[in-house]
Amino acid sequence: MRLLVRPAQYVALALYILFLGFPLLWLMSASVKSSGELNSLTVNLLPQEWHWENYTEALTRQGLLHSAWNSLLVALASTVLSIIISVPASYVLARLKGKVRAAGVGWILVSQVFPVVLIILPLFLILRTLGLADNLVGLTLVHTTYMLPFALWMLQGYVAAIPTELEEAGAMDGASRFTVLRTIVFPLLAPGVVATAMFSFVSSWNEFFFALVLLQSPENYTLPITLNTFVGGEGRTALGPLAAGAVLAAIPSIVFFSILRKKLTGGLMAGAVKG
Amino acid sequence: MKTRRLLAAASLMATALLVAACGGGSGDASGPVTLTFQSLSDQPAAIAQTQKIVGAWNTAHPEVQVKIVQAGWDSVYDKLITQFNAGTAPDIVHYEAAGIEPFAEDDYLADLTPYLSQAKRADFQKGVLDSVTFGGKVVAFPTEVQSYVVFANKKLLQQAGVAVPTGKTMTWDQLRQISKATTKGSTYGLGWGLSSPTAAFVALAPGFGGKYFQGTGDQANLTVGEGETALPKLVDEMAYQDHSILPVTLTQSGSKALAPFYAGQTAMTVQGSYQAANIAKDAPKGFDWVVLPPLAGPAGPAQAASPQTLSVNKDSAHVKEAAEFIDYFTNTDNLAAMNEADALIPPTNSARQALATKLAGKTGWDQILSSGQYITSAPYLFASKYPQWKDTIATPAYQQFLAQKIDANGLTTQLQNGWKSVTTN
């Protein structure tokens, strides 16, 4: 009986991975199917004939690569900005006591309840006045602003999980506040920062509505806006090229996650505080 | 929709102090005028054709250059409302008659009546031109229109001993009979993607004498009588009495209902006319299909359509030049070429004739273009609350009716009470 436990665990894990990965597999399959096969009753994971033209069309139509580059710039810039701002701010939020903290937390929560459609117009007008409408810098600022509350919320939870005893121990050993932060808090906070950065990157990479309204020129379009042009009027959708575009669009996120995955290690604090 | 406009207007007032006045097109007295043309063309051939038309214009008019700004259909309303409110809308706006009503009502669109020649006015299908006339002003030129037609699998009709109808029109009763005759075993006579049935029912209602709406703007009234419920009842009878409609298609989109048609599970399918291009591209090799004559109800073959349109931003610094470009874009040759590329129907008689001549004998086009002559004005385009009623009231009510959850009386009650609720809130 015990001999069967380990194989059963692997089978369960394989099934779980298949369950999670199937939509992506299906997307990849759709990206190499012909329009005829995509619009038939035939259900095949492997295409009847491989139709790579979808990728050609996705790449040549509407400047997909250029849009991907725009998306990458905006996502990386807004991720870096939001991390730079939210790390110290979240530390203050987590460690501060009293009305200022309550006001900060209140602001974070309240800022999440405004519907996008309510703020888009004033935002657009302000950016236009500043000369940042239809501009990737403007979009980066908007993405940063929009992601910041959630990033703060996420990170302050990670900070709160770091025992204050560690900081007190450092202080007892004569370390300055800055040294304590640099040598004790930040290393322990790293997994949280990575998780927040991942969230920020993906949020910006996938963001559609702000980009739709703020970006007027095709040369500034981000990837979701360009992919949107594959969805036509009268219910016509270029399914093959859209799937191919979506596969290509997923690659940078996967690469970004692969790079940061190793940083996402938990258990750094295990045993840090002895009872 | 009104809520969004109110929100947008409120936001605009709150931030008005931040705004400097701004116009549309650029250009000064010494240089050429540049007009921005926000195009929604999405088919590769249509995108190429749009570029070709604009290129020809730019070559012939060095003093008025048009720059295409490509945008997508999805969420374009949100984009436009922001652009108009913020004063950054393009000079030339591509959209559809059903979508421009709120912008016309808010006076964002230039009156193009002075730029519409008598010859062109006579050339436009009257009903189509009516659909872009708000308060007596023509606020857009129609460019492309679709009708609902019946695509048929010739082989299945022949196997059932049914002659393919060849008249100028075909009655709904004929469709029902053919549908019954071709229903055998696992094959159904008809597949009709009615997951979002409102658009089709409202567009096809004129054939049964149905109008749905009278009046305009917020004053529009809804009537649901015999003419309006005749088609839903017919579909219900075909599905549940004749059992000649493939049930699953009633819950599918139009495009999804094509798959069983290709597979021979349905002998016919009702679709937007533009699907001819997709059928030609996607159907299995050797698939022998035809388009049946335009459908006619007791009141004739009329259909109420929402054409694609080109409008001019009223705040554009170059309304006249933009209107002249639209006039050029909608000349006979350009409309014929655009509609061929998009597999749609030109809204002018001359362009339809030109396309009919060019595509004579090409599968389906004769019938599709013929159906274009029956396009009539669409009262729903003038009812401000129609989009809200369609999405929140009518579509769920029709879905319940087609699933036999409510009867015809229940449907009528839901449609009428729903209209009252959206117009009084």
UniProtKB/TrEMBL annotation, chain A:
One record GO biological process: transmembrane transport
ABC transmembrane type-1 domain: residues covered: 68-260
Xref: PROSITE patterns: ABC_TM1
Keyword field contains Metal-binding: no
Keyword ATP-binding: no
SUPFAM superfamilies: MetI-like
Membrane topology: Multi-pass membrane protein
Any matching Pfam family: BPD_transp_1
Keywords attached to this entry: Cell membrane, Membrane, Transmembrane, Transmembrane helix, Transport
Primary subcellular site in the record, as a coarse category: membrane
Gene3D superfamilies for the chain: MetI-like
Transmembrane segments: 12-32, 72-93, 105-126, 146-163, 184-205, 238-260
UniProt subcellular location: Cell membrane
Gene Ontology CC terms, in alphabetical order: plasma membrane
Record family assignment: Belongs to the binding-protein-dependent transport system permease family.
Descriptive protein name: Carbohydrate ABC transporter permease
Organism: Amycolatopsis carbonis
UniProtKB/TrEMBL annotation, chain B:
Signal peptide location: 1-21
Keywords assigned: Signal
Listed Pfam families: SBP_bac_1
InterPro entries the record matches: Bact_solute-bd_prot1 (IPR050490), SBP (IPR006059)
Chain segments annotated as transmembrane: none
Gene3D superfamilies (UniProt xref): Periplasmic binding protein-like II (3.40.190.10)
Alphabetical list of PANTHER family matching this protein: ABC TRANSPORTER SUBSTRATE-BINDING PROTEIN, ARABINOSE-BINDING PROTEIN-RELATED
Taxonomy, superkingdom: Bacteria
Name of the molecule in the record: Sugar ABC transporter substrate-binding protein
